[in-house]
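Q: Fold this one first, please.
A: Sequence and structure below.
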Amino acid sequence: MDRNSTGRRRNRSWPEDLKREIVAATYEPGASVAGVARRYGVNDNQVFTWRKRFGGQQGETVPAHMVPVVVAEDMAASGRKEASSSAGVVEIDLAGGYRGDDTTVPVLAKGKTDTGRCWVYVRDDRPFGGPAPPAAMFYYSRDRRGEHPQAHLAGYAGLLQADAYGGYGALYLPDRKPGPILEAACWAHARRPFFALADLAANARRKAEGRAASVISPLALEAVRRIDALFEIERAISGQDADRRRAIRQELSAPLVADLERWLTEKRAGLSRGNDLAKAMDYMLKRWPAFTRFLDDGRVCMTNNSAERALRGIALGRKSWLFAGSDRGGQRAASMYSLIVTAKMNDIDPQAWLADVLARIAGHPASRIDELLPWNWRNANPASAVAA
């Protein structure tokens, strides 16, 4: 008989009282969603959905843990303060927030592969000299429905930098509980369509290969020039503290951004709705408050590149491992990517770290488990610990 560690038979249908019991168990001291999910034989993402539904009814402070592992709990604990809400005490992120992105993952199905998704949320405060160490957390899902990021961030309020995927929309609602998430748009995403329409190098390659060259848009060239002027300012202030970054942005970037908005609005009026350049302009103008958020907050970056870099290993890996064998395999892969990418972000060799931690963890006190996190870890052989 298929039973989990509690002795219960694994269920596909869960009574309401049992759902509440499972949710309550995740809020016990030292508990994690992953551990409770394994104990009851239920999917991690399902437990997050139940937490969103029942979490505020527990009659106690609900911690805003992003994800069910120690790395994620540290991510959620760093740089926060308590704020009042009708549900009790809510943790509001005062650090640089999270950067989110997702990519496709082929998943084995009967006679074919389905297209699953791997989601990542990155904390990286290094651009503004923040004290929190960088970390990344990955999730797997069978599809790209908006309920997944909503479950991942169910207990979070603060900044989120991501693309314009519609599934994030519910996170930005002003009446969201435990509080709204502030959207910060990615200027790299906005720049790409303009760059594609003004790519002189690509046109030269097409001509050399005997293919017809595409038309270079003068407006696209001008848009790239204006956006690149903003990136030039950002390169000069990378690593400076948030107040200094904000002051320089107000002095140098804000006038350029205001002028860019006027220029985009003026040029957009002369283009048809189906024009590729018009679509690129609309992408920015419809989200202008999110694109300009970096001007008033030195913690916000102009791009979501740190999340995209975190996903790079998956894009490369798809050529080697081809597909995940099952949903459970996708979930295990997400867990491993969380560990490996976080180690790399902290300039730690993942292989050396994992080998040492796995050898020591059985005898390591649970109350000092944070000593084994990548940013706290000290290897017996320092020469092998630095990431290549």
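Q: Good. Now the second chain.
A: Here it is, same layout.
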Amino acid sequence: MQVLKNLRGPIGLCAIWLGMFAGALAAEGPQRWALLVGVNQYDYARGLDYCVSDQRALSEALTAAGFPARQVTLMVDDASERRLQPTRTNVKTQIELLVKLARPGDMVLIGLSGHGVLLERTTYFCPSDAKLDDADTLVSLDWVYQQLKGCQADLRLVLMDACRNVPPTPAGRRAIDPDALVATSRAFAQSGSRLPEGVLLLNSCSEGEFAQEDQPLGHGVFTHFLLEGLKGKADRDGDQKISLQELFSYSSKETSLYVRDKYAGLQRPTLQGKLAVEALDFELASLSSGRLPMTVTGSATKEITSKTTGMKLVLIPAGEFTMGSSETEIENLLEDFSDVKRSNLEDEQPAHRVKISEPFYMGKYEVTLREFLLFYHDAKYQLDCEKDGKGGWGYDSSAEKFGQKAQYRPWEWGYAGQTMQHPVVNVSWNDAKAFCDWLSRKDGQKYRLPTEAEWEYACRAGTTTRHPGGDRTSELAGIANIADQSAKRIP
């Protein structure tokens, strides 16, 4: 279990912490499977903005909520593996594989985010190589339903977000005119009447409506509130579990109100199919045991050491804490930090109780540059900041400011005093996960990133004060690596 924590100061750098999951996960009992397809860039049609980020965020949310990571398949434009690029052939292949893997008692979720079209009374999802007027390049929704009809899983859910209201088309790309978009929206909604028994359709909007993309949210509106619901806001009864009914009720209501208030329009998500009480009560996510990094049984050692890197990990006991911030705490924070906007703190509310029901191990110190470079060289790994050519973030002493440059790397970011024992910086989530996977293979134990709840619980260490070290903001510099007045003296 590996921890990646962003330091949200002007520096914009990040440090890795490490924790551990002991033992392998046994594939016992009902399983959860997900296939998530997001298409922003089309070969023959107008592009979209947030389909890829929507599905990537949903993949992370489902994994954090208890879906096994290897059973969540993400297909997006920038997938490094060719088989996971969202072409028609690849999408159909992955759907066929998914329905064959599921067994009785399992849940299967297929999420489709991109363009949708209506041709000759048939609704289609548009993969990346789609030609909007050629059915042979599209994925029929009826075909998806028929595949799911033959699937053995108890709950089969299609999450459809494919009627997006988007800006004008760039030159040379085929547009979907507004009338066609309305017709497609109506057809997607009506396709719910043809759902096979046991298959449910959660649609981002009702008949004749558009699904809004929203720049401030950084997501489609519908997906944003799905994500918020999975994080815990949909848990109406406080049982630390998110049912299908709870998630739909929360995301539908919040989406409708947001679009009404901001766009003076209608977007009302729908849930269709032959719904039974058992289906509505199906547990989609767990906010407690399903998200925990490890189970420790018997007499656990208080501190262990990685045999590959020498990193020390300490045992964090089970317990409960209040996660998030109250309105008073938000107001105090805005008063103390004038550069922080209220919109940046929306995810901090509401404050709610979270139970960590099992103890787990977490890194005693941040992962150092030395420890990270052991992985970097042994695995012959290429960092994200090397792949895109943009580089990482660092300090430019000549300009006296922080910024991004192509030459910045974990070992070079403008700080002359950096040593091999300093926390590693300029690593992405992908880089941190790759480090975990490498260390898992080397040590024969499972390391991974923690959930947000696990991180906050460990950092608070049983305290109930405003900050982990007390109520006074001025004392933060004594316990955290933050950009304070001393940042002005960086050489």
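Q: Anything worth noting on the second one?
A: The mean pLDDT is 79.
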